[in-house]
Amino acid sequence: RIDGARLWDSLMQLARIGATEKGGVCRLALTELDGQGRDLFVRWAKEAGCSIRIDAIGNIFARRAGRDDSLPPITTGSHIDTQPTGGKFDGNYGVLAGLEVIRSLNDAGLVTQAPLEIAVWTNEEGSRFVPVMMGSGVFTGAFTLEHALAQRDQSGTSVAEALQAIGYAGPALASADVSPVGAYFEAHIEQGPVLEANRQVIGVVEGALGQRWYDLVLQGMEAHAGPTPMELRRDALLAASEIVLEVNRIALDHAPHARGTVGFIDSYPNSRNVIPGRVRMSVDFRAADDAVLSAMDAELKAAVQRSAAARKVEASVEQVVYFPPQPFAPELVAAVRDAAQAQGLGWMDIVSGAGHDAVYLARVCPTAMIFVPCLDGISHNEIEDAEPAHLEAGCNVLLQAMVASAGG
Amino acid sequence: RIDGARLWDSLMQLARIGATEKGGVCRLALTELDGQGRDLFVRWAKEAGCSIRIDAIGNIFARRAGRDDSLPPITTGSHIDTQPTGGKFDGNYGVLAGLEVIRSLNDAGLVTQAPLEIAVWTNEEGSRFVPVMMGSGVFTGAFTLEHALAQRDQSGTSVAEALQAIGYAGPALASADVSPVGAYFEAHIEQGPVLEANRQVIGVVEGALGQRWYDLVLQGMEAHAGPTPMELRRDALLAASEIVLEVNRIALDHAPHARGTVGFIDSYPNSRNVIPGRVRMSVDFRAADDAVLSAMDAELKAAVQRSAAARKVEASVEQVVYFPPQPFAPELVAAVRDAAQAQGLGWMDIVSGAGHDAVYLARVCPTAMIFVPCLDGISHNEIEDAEPAHLEAGCNVLLQAMVASAGG
Ligand SMILES: NC(=O)NCCC(=O)O
Ligand SMILES: NC(=O)NCCC(=O)O
């Protein structure tokens, strides 16, 4: 049994770093605040007797020795970077639930057969830098370390520079090849309304939607909003607006298991009386079926072509993230289900609409996830909230599933 | 006859202050660069024997005494602030054409009956601060000095603070009541394609389109782009995109003498995998007929209502600029036409799609404008360009019209 009050207390302490006025957290990946959050976790993990390893993309691995340290570790974890308007639980819960599992085993004087590890994956959110799920993506070979290190934020700072600046550029690349993982579990808030609507405490996650992300650039021509006749304009924002609506329509056409969102838009020169000359924007597509995701890709490209031609702008579409729908390992999913059942918790099977580090880990080891409800299904919002009792229940399921995998 | 080479040379010197890589100028109102541009003009005007007065909104008046200094001055001028992606000629031409008129009269040893003034009006562009045409608006009582001084840019700096910072907060409010103007002429590039298409050198400006500008705020709800079902979203950018397209449609419905533009848009939190929670945007409407402008206003409000309801967002619409279509004074328009004709220049009557300080001056004194062509009709763009010969021709028309009004 874990200590729910201690878990809650740790969550609230970590949430102070980057706390926002509206009760949320803004701790973007690899900022100074992210560095402070990492330092706090490392201190706590050392106090819990763990050894610490940092790899070349800044992933943190906190290890608790097992009786047989030659076995691959049973790993849990998540991320502590947040959205600009993020909450206290997204990611942070998975990391601190792992810490609470180790603290509880320490209290009980129990050592598992296989070692246990907590991983804090770098830049899961994908808000400051793409690709999203960067640390776990490098670890599992989804893309290269070099590709990840070279990415830049809107202000031009690279991942490599940001890692150096906060002191989390580790010496070597950890990868699943050189450091195999025995099994991976990740506890997370659901970030959607399904558990709450069904009044269940534990989501037994069967897999996650596939994703395709894009960067679009629409190049028109700046001109004066007054004397320039309507029919001579090359207004990049008109094309962008049509595409925003098309992205939404494409997702609706593939209901119910597809999503389409334009989260980022930047119009230039952004002056009230100037016809917009250039728009940069993102597109985020998700689907439960890879064929649907491919169809959405084709429909997006056709929509961009149509708008570009109609509005006389040049358009470029670059795909910056792709992963197919990812099913989790049936035997580990069953272990999560069994633990929930054994503890008498209301549970249901569920599919994740969000990407998680677990999606990449599932490529290299048996993987499963544990969801708990969040208030009104709201996440990526400062008002994100969760019940202490639900967080405690999810952590107990994690404890039982990890110990079962590691050998009690 | 004015000295076309000297006029061109002054234009090129002023254009160095805030010069951009693409050959344009970025000298936003009341920035340090605007201060440097003002200093250069003041030095030149003093060298040409003018006395200088700065008023409380930062308008600069450079005065050349007349034979009868009790007469109200014959004034010309324009502005030297630019768009973020502005050109070398918009505004600057009108100010430096005025200076060239005075330099030429000095060379010829001619003194007019009435005094002559060059006005450099503060923040005509309306890009950094609204209302647009701010200095002339205060001077003519279109809105109050207090209202103008209190406006803030996107970073929160007020007009009052910015004026202090560059040393152009003059002691007293100049207004047309206390300092009456005998007549006002303004030379400007056309900023549209009409003169070029008709192969004419001088546009005899009969008046300007009316304008209504708005600030819109659409408040939805940030949420996660993955797990949040499409039908539960309150996506502010979807509503904004519909409104962008409606603004365009409304203008097209009132063709050919209506314009509609969304030049500014800001989406929050602007993160790729977050459903946009809030969008702020501008709307710029123009029309030749005030009744049409009112109809467009009503259509905008209806469109915003529809999108807000459909997308479950809250919407606010604030009108931040309004002036009706403004005809110029027939006798001064005729003086411009006569001067063009006398000088054997190809001319045509034209309506201004842009607002100009002359639009406000026309409320307090007889007013007219002189347009010259600009390359491909492009303005509010760094590639804005104009022919030296056309600029010289426009300045000669200005000279003749001013001397005729002031008494030779
Ligand atoms: N869990 C989570 O918020 N991940 C961010 C990546 C995504 O947008 O799915
Ligand atoms: N002339 C000019 O560019 N004025 C700016 C005000 C407007 O947008 O009409």
UniProtKB/TrEMBL annotation, chains A, B:
EC numbers on record: 3.5.-.-
Similarity remark: Belongs to the peptidase M20 family.
Cofactor binding annotation: Binds 2 Zn(2+) ions per subunit.
Keyword tags: Hydrolase, Metal-binding, Zinc
Keyword Nucleus: no
Cofactors: Zn(2+)
Organism of this sequence: Xylophilus rhododendri
UniProt: Zn(2+) 1 binding residues: 79, 90, 188
Residues annotated as binding Zn(2+) 2: 90, 125, 380
Stored InterPro entries: Amidase_Cbmase, Bact_exopeptidase_dim_dom, Peptidase_M20, Peptidase_M20_dimer
Limits of the Peptidase M20 dimerisation domain: 210-307
Protein name (database record): Hydantoinase/carbamoylase family amidase
Example GO molecular function: metal ion binding
